[in-house]
Design brief:
The chain contains 15 helices and 15 strands. With 392 residues, the chain is of the alpha/beta class. The strands form four sheets. The protein has a seven-stranded mixed sheet, with helices on both faces. α3 runs antiparallel to α12. The protein has two domains: 147 residues, Aspartate Aminotransferase, domain 1; 225 residues, Aspartate Aminotransferase, domain 2 (3-Layer(aba) Sandwich). The chain is globular and about 65 Å long. The longest helix is centred in the last third of the chain and has 25 residues.
Amino acid sequence: MERFEEVVSRKGTRSVKWDMAEDLYQDKEVLPMWVADMDFKTPSAVTNALKERAEHGIFGYTIPDAKVKESITHWLENRHKWKIDPEWITYSPGVIPSLHMIIQSLTEIGDHIIIQTPVYPPFYSVIKDHGRHVVKNPLQLNEEQYEIDFADFEKKIKENDVSMFILCNPHNPVGRVWKKEELQKMMDICLKHDVKVVADEIHADLIYKGNVHVPIASLSEEAAKQTITCLSPTKTFNLAGLQASYVVIPDETDKKKVDRYFKNQGMLMLNTLGVTAMEAAYDHGEEWLIELMDVLENHRDYVTQRFHNETSSIRVFPAEGTYLLWLDCRKLGMDQTELKRFMQKEAKVGLNDGASFGEEGEGFMRLNIAAPKSIIEDGVNRIIEAVKAQEQ
């Protein structure tokens, strides 16, 4: 576990998380715990592969060949029991660019697309930016976790003639890993009303013990034909800056349409180092990932217990997946502007604003725990001390 305890300074590396923090929060003392990348070094197998490729010295046009597809298909089958045809794969620089291409190629201007809120902020913009309409199926908050309102899901689909559903699994920010039964209910409704399912499964590998990630496309052959799945090793192995992801599209007609949009936008290949990192991570990164999940689970439990034991004003929802914790701060009795100010100015911790995930996120903040334990402890101490001072 020692490799996950090393504090590596990311300042001066053009890091969004660290180098933008002072400008964003107007305070150099704020501890950034927001952007969804990790403060851990990627597996040494990836670093070594990148060094070897860099030493070659020539970085001309590069294609992901059959070996790269083999690395992807083996990973999906080994980790998620999902056997795919390599020909279903389309490469992309990232999940967000993929969503832009998918929406433009498979829906029309004026179409309605349903999402489950609170949810990853770009889901809203990729819909609105292309003249489509957002339809919300708000997740239902109970005492223990968030649940899907299936009746509302189908009602909204029928009332708005919804053509597409963007699923987030595992869900960002609430941390749910949807169970097979939940996925099947949603798929049955989508099949019934001919709603195309676009599954953002970028956090698929970051699953805590007692939970299992089920790719929604793996439910059945019929489900596969109805689904387009966006995946990447970048969250799993901390490779976001290398921009390497892919889309799995089993339906031949859908794949031709999506591929045409990628081609029309000039997105014809991945960058050389992204290809190298993807292959190395999938071929040699599993042991590192197993160790990472033990570290993250320890961090999740530590943060949860600290808040539970030391303050009644902030509650941590039990994350089943991802390295992002959803903090319920409503008992602090602040509006969202006050809450943001409190975290930045009093606690001096940079978190993601819950309201950025939709109005259902007001009163909440998102905390990134993918950092060495010393940083996690510092951040938790800052928040708890600020809360105690505020309560006095």
